[in-house]
Amino acid sequence: MKTAAELKNVSFSYGEDTGKILDNADFRINYGEITLLSGDSGQGKSTVLSLICGIIPNLTPGVLDGEITVDSESTKDKPLREICRKVGVVLQNADSQIIQQTVEDEIAFGCENFNFSPESIKELIKESCEAMSLSPERQTRTLSGGQKQRLITASTLATRQKILILDEPLANLDFSSSVQLMKTLKSLAENGYAVLIIEHRTDLVADYADRICEISGGKVYEIENTKEFSQSKTGIIPDTAENMNSGETAFSIKSVSFSINKKEIIKDLSADISKGDRILLMGENGCGKTTLLRLLARLYKPTDGEIIQSILSSLKKGKTSKEWFRSVGVVYQNPDYQLFMPTVRTEIEYNAFSKEYADKMIELFGFSSLESRHPQSLSEGQKRRLSIAAVLASKPRVLLLDEPTVGQDYNGLKKMTDILNAIHKDTGNTMITVTHDKRCAPALCDKAFLIENGTIAKSGGKEFVEQYFGITEEKQ
Amino acid sequence: MSNIKKSAVYPLLGIAVSVFVLIFGLITAAKDNRCCCIFLAGVFIVFLLTGFHRACLRVILPALAVAALFGLITYLSGRGFDKALSIGLRFIAIGIAVIPGMSIRPVDLTRNLNALKVPRGITLGMLIALNFTPLLKAEIKQIREAMKTRGTGSIINLKILYRAFLIPLVMRLVNISDTLALSVETRGFTLEGNDVSVYKKVSPRIKDGAVAALIAVCAVGALII
Amino acid sequence: MEKKKLFQKFTVKDIVFLAIISAVTLVTSAVMPLVIAVPVFGIIQVALGFQFSVFPAIGVMKVRKPGSVVFVAIFSGIVLVFMNPVMFACLALCAVIAEAVSLAIFKGYEKDAACFLAGALYLPLSLPFLHLWYKAIGIGDSGEAVKALVNPKPLTAVLMSLAVVAICCLGAFVGVKISKELRKSGALKK
User: In the CATH scheme, what is the code of domain A249-475?
Assistant: First the structure.
């Protein structure tokens, strides 16, 4: 296989005084192959991406040694634009990258920058839309999270670079969208493209990858036994909690419907949730899981039907209060919205049940050595854990978690799952989780609802979750 | 292949029409209510018939409501019906002047300015300032909601505004802009390069000339009548 | 040590941040169309003072290049031009003057005080500008709002001007404070 991009003896640090993130590292990707680059948070996966596509040193300075080649040419002193003519990059957070109002214009943006003729742009829009199942006329702001991710991928595909790098492309995709994207990438690789995927969810990529590499301690290692490696990173996290169902009803959802701009997102949904239950909400992107979570938190009001809560009896129908949100803790998918205090300690102590309980959370979540740090100085994984710790510090009777595992490496994920279960065991709280992550799904549930088209299509216990995520088949 | 609607008017002409309608409307509202009424009604009909109908329908009710409110306040403060009407007409003039702006697709304005060799930094900035308002509105809503969930209290309190609203908002702005900047640069955007193509050229059409002429007729007609 | 050039080139990252800052300034200024025709001296500046000082100050604190406030004025002006073209021209000119004053005193944006001054001056300058503008072109039978701006009651003019300056200073101070806090945490890099 011909080498597409290569790092030879590369060392890099972000500053003179900071440690080396890469230390004499060698790494290559080949045309005609999908390469998966795996590794724990903070090990330097994104640094490798930035080095290959020229973000380092063109936009991000640092101390760089060694040689980087793209398509057999050294990238030294080459401007970013020149490198990006050969390397297409799909970054995380699609929502922040969409600059145009329609799918067609968004895809055309890169093509125009690379000075393609209007005729070829038209053709490329058509092809990339077909590959990513998008309609060119769609308004970009009406796309779901998964569709936005596909759009950003499509706009990169349209610019025709033969080397593609994707940074956590599956982070917000459900199972079927993930499979669709991986199949597209596989066919591109079969057509001679070099594809590099940086992804925590190795379970979804491993089957499609031709090579798997792991970055650790500043070096990149090629994994020989990919099957064994894949199993070690995709193991199902064991459930360490007990069923704390008290038999009392926490929420009684009665024929609830909810619409935004005349679009019905939740349709005539009914269910009962008992106190002490751990509920898992599953389903494809845009099926209404997060909306249901928000309805339970009273952040939305049902347009029809009602949700009767037995958490805070003094609360008037449809209203919220400070006390309500102390009783019902909501953890957002993006921790940046909920972190605002100047130190980790004050963040956890804010609205905490008691100082002692806040101390306990600091200890439990491993923030003892970080308590004087500014929350915004933490890594993404740490911020996510901090937002959960801060919400849990008020000892809520109900905990609503929206995709708490996005961007977490396997060890971080396992640790977080164990902590959530330990607190559940300790307090008997009701825990309702939305997740696409099969590694932790069975460990966070006693009961699961599969949401389809805004209503509960099926429900069941742990076995149902295992069946939904295909864990049962793997076990067999 | 594409069914995407083009801007209702040549972008630069749209801006010129907006400025003209606003200035002429405000001046006539101050001098002669009847003249202003005729001009604004004429312009509104021209806009309705020349492809701006969606923006017309979106604008007219809020503009009338605000105009009625301020007109009523003026009338109740004892300054007479004419003064009240004059104040109301000003708000309607502002509303109608916004219509061409609402009918210009930011991408068309950008392509228009790119073709005229306006620096790319300016066109990119305008494109972002216009297209990111819905996203930023949603971000602000999300932060206000997150404040509720952490039990922070009212945003009117300066301490709370600073800590629980502005800090997360600025963090989001920094993250969004860093990601967006990386994304546009890796998609080949540079500030220096002029060798860019335009996917769909934006050129003045006969209809644009007709709109400008009809607006001029409305102005002259209103003055004569 | 090599002395830094006063005028440095803007990067794509700078432009994008300033555009986002402009967009958020606009989003938080939705009250503008409601106060445009209210006949009280300086009412627009009072209503928009905080937003038009806190966000430009943050923009300059991050970018730290002369011209940053002018960019914010231009980018936010694209929406303003449809509602109040005079205000657009006025804000662009005020941005130039605010930056010129700040740079004349501090010779660049290295110091936080320079960013504060540029942010705090930007909007209050529009008061004398608009006053002089309408006086120069003659108000004739102009609306009450313009009349209130050109011939205000002295006490109202003094009190409202002080209020505008106070609000903008507060906004710029908050903007600098936020930027310093986030820069210290490493979240706000240049």
Answer: 3.40.50.300
